[in-house]
Amino acid sequence: MWPCSSAFKLYLSVVVSVLLTYPSHAQVLGDIPNTDQSIRIDGKLDEPAWKSGLRIVLDVETRPGENIDPPVETEAWLIEDGRRLLVAFKAYDPDPDKIRAYLRDRDSAFSDDFVGVVLDTFNDERRAFEFFVNPLGAQMDLIQDDVNDNEDESWDAIWESAGEITDFGYVVEVAIPFTQLRFPKTEDKQTWGIDVLRFYPRVDRHRISNNKLD
User: Fold this and answer.
1) How would you class 113 by CB atoms within 10 Å of its CB: exposed for 0-12, middle for 13-18, buried for 19 or more?
2) Which one, out of 104, 120, 138, 159, has a CA that is 20 to 30 A from the CA of 186?
3) What is the pLDDT of residues 19-37, one digit of tens each?
């Protein structure tokens, strides 16, 4: 893990690319903005700083449909404060009473509704860090190994999350300290691959993303 101090600012030029697909599928979203404003991870999404975040729309269902319009709307925002990558989600649901969410132990909420990010911090499609959260804030974190095509949930990072079910669906906030990640040791701008995801289990378990999957 590379050390980070409160004075360190990690400028991220985010290349969004689906892991395990061809590089031609990548698209550049732009820089993740930096903020010096305080953000409390409480599932409220009421801090002004979020308005300056990089907005991402999850507009593709990749499973069971193949790159079709998703059945529900989802928005995400990314921002960083020099110490942490901060991610917020608004997950809209036409019938919030059907949201599946329970207070669970770590790495045990995969049958629930949940959202999260996959971070390819070296942008080489070899390994990625996965962070997922259900609507009540239960955490799931894994290492994705693209070389051997497996996921390891024994890896546990120290990070923050909170969620709240609302009248329109649910809200999730996430704060991932840079000290919990490995990435190139350089003073230059970082370029990371990222997949922003939502899993929507109803009759089928829908995988919804901002990226098409080949």
Assistant:
1) buried
2) 159
3) 333 344 566 778 899 999 9
